[in-house]
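[step 3/7] fold_predict: job queued, chain A
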Amino acid sequence: MLAPAAVLTDIEGTTTPPAFIQGVLLPYARQALPDWAGRIDLPDVATILAEIRRMVPDQPELTTLQHWSDRDLKLAPLQRLQGMIWEQGYADGDLRGQLYPDVPPHLHAWAAQGIRIFTYTSGSIPAQKLIFGHSTAGDLSPLIAGFFDTRIGAKRDPDSYVRLAIGMNVPTSAVAFLSDNESELDAATTAGMRAIHITRPDTNTPPSDRHPTAATFAEAASLLGLPRVG
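[step 4/7] structure written:
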């Protein structure tokens, strides 16, 4: 079987430890919400607050933001404000994007061989770019050919993966999708992609009985016929 022309990867639990998303990024933004919600001198913040007032007119904007944040709702105004907070945090050196150790060398190896790499996650595209652009392994964003979020479609909908392939300009049959979520892998394979179930030890993800399973990108590379490091 030919190696894929492109790799599409999830982030949380696949390239990045959930503890970084849930234990670092989200609390960092949550703590900063009161300060940022008061920065009406910034036009982008004022626009976000006005949008929140239209969506939820019967309570203060900060209360709405905190409610959404506590429930990890993927709503555009919250995600835009979180992105601004994180961008400042990365710029100040408070944040560094965390990746599993096997990820950076494989991104380098695959990109060097002309394998196009894309990300797809429920986190916003700016948030994805920050993780890879300010990672503990340096700026890896040039290795990523494109970033996608759920504006293109739900991750458990096969049609989303058809649209992704169109956006990537690659046939679905030439794409390998890496994820720790079996339902997402089911949707990708229904659309015609190859799928590898990533089972990181820190996610307690059980092996799949429907998809090939790999604990690292090195194991995934072996299954897919891609360059393997280590």
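[step 5/7] annotate
Strands lie at 6-9, 116-120, 146-148, 175-179, 194-198, 213-214.
The chain has a mean pLDDT of 96.
exit 0
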